[in-house]
Design goal:
The structure is a homodimer. By secondary structure, chain A is of the alpha+beta class. In chain A, helix 3 packs across helix 4. Chain A is globular, with a radius of gyration of 18 Å. The longest helix of chain A is centred in the middle third of the chain and has 13 residues, at 51-63. In chain A, a hairpin with a 2-residue loop joins strand 1 and strand 2. Chain A folds into two domains: 2-79, Winged helix-like DNA-binding domain superfamily/Winged helix DNA-binding domain (Arc Repressor Mutant, subunit A), CATH 1.10.10; 86-137, Ferric-uptake regulator, C-terminal dimerisarion domain (Dna Ligase, domain 1, 2-Layer Sandwich). Chain A has five helices and five strands. The first copy, chain A, has a three-stranded mixed beta sheet. The interface between A and B is large, with 37 and 36 residues. Strand 5 (118-129) of chain A pairs antiparallel with strand 5 (118-129) of chain B, so a sheet runs across the interface. The complex binds manganese (II) ion (2 copies) and zinc ion (2 copies). One zinc ion (ZN) binds next to helix 5 of chain B. Chain A binds a DNA duplex through helix 2 and helix 4.
Chain lengths: 138, 138
DNA sequence: GCCCTATTGGTAATAATTCCTATTACTGAT
DNA sequence: ATCAGTAATAGGAATTATTACCAATAGGGC
């Protein structure tokens, strides 16, 4: 939690019990919890916490780079897995899964320079069958 | 418009004035209009059209593959440009722009097979500076 | 402990999208 | 062209994720 308290201080934020527990609960989740799901988990430990505080907390945690915000579908999801990885949305079961590996050949962002674009980063979303659904198909 | 009337019929949908004009107006837009912007444009020609009809129309047009739905940020945008292209979100001016070219090296989707994923398609979002903002920086 | 002020809890507001229903209007058959 | 069956529409209400507001609270530097 040192990275949290120091990260917060560095930006003039305060280290609150709420923010600490929000981070702990996001890290506990294997998958990609929504704000509401994190709220429900935190509420067990802090029964009086409000949904707004969770949204605000997730915002600063994202800003500090301690979690990732994954925008897909009708609501945002959050990800404590900071390793470089992409996401696959299963066209069969609709799950959002980690593809735990960077690209075998990283995207060449220089190719866009000829068109005047200065690409800083990119996001890849894969669509297809997750391992479970792929197996069921065969 | 033949592709529209036949496409609709093929799926058991009806060819309505509203759907025809919605498609025409999406095609008129250079950039990536929101449902509301399309509604405003269509409303000039069909003053009584309702927003719900525009949403429904955009839905079937997307389903028929006559337009693309671009989900990014707080609202969906629509795209009549069916050529294979990616999008760049400018980190300076926040615009969503076409990068009118496929990748010089298409993503090798087979590399994910080893992990059990059956990738059918993928979407790449680029973040960086658009040509205008890139020029202003130098 | 004291003070300053960032943060919180509770609640209202916002806004994109979907849902509901009586009425309208495509479309295939007569 | 008329008709009947039903998909689609207009208009409005409902839903829902997220943000805004504000009086009360609590970090943290002294
Ligand atoms: Mn992930
Ligand atoms: Mn485009
Ligand atoms: Zn699946
Ligand atoms: Zn720009």
């Amino acid at each position: 939690m040192k990275e949290l308290s120091e990260g917060l201080r560095q930006e003039g934020y305060r280290f609150t019990r709420q923010r600490r527990i929000i981070l702990e609960e996001v890290r506990k989740q294997q998958y990609h919890p929504s704000a509401k799901e994190i709220y429900d988990a935190v509420k067990i430990r802090l029964p009086n916490i409000s949904l707004g505080t969770v949204y605000r907390g997730l915002g600063v945690l994202t800003e500090l780079g301690l979690i990732r915000k994954v925008e897909h579908g009708e609501y945002a999801r959050f990800d404590a897995n900071l390793a470089e990885h992409h996401h696959l949305i299963c066209t069969d079961c609709d799950q959002l899964l980690d593809v735990d590996a960077p690209l075998s050949e990283p995207l060449n962002t220089q190719q866009f320079k000829a068109r005047g674009f200065e690409v800083q980063r990119y996001k890849i979303e894969l669509y297809g069958l997750c391992p479970t659904c792929a197996t069921e198909r065969s």
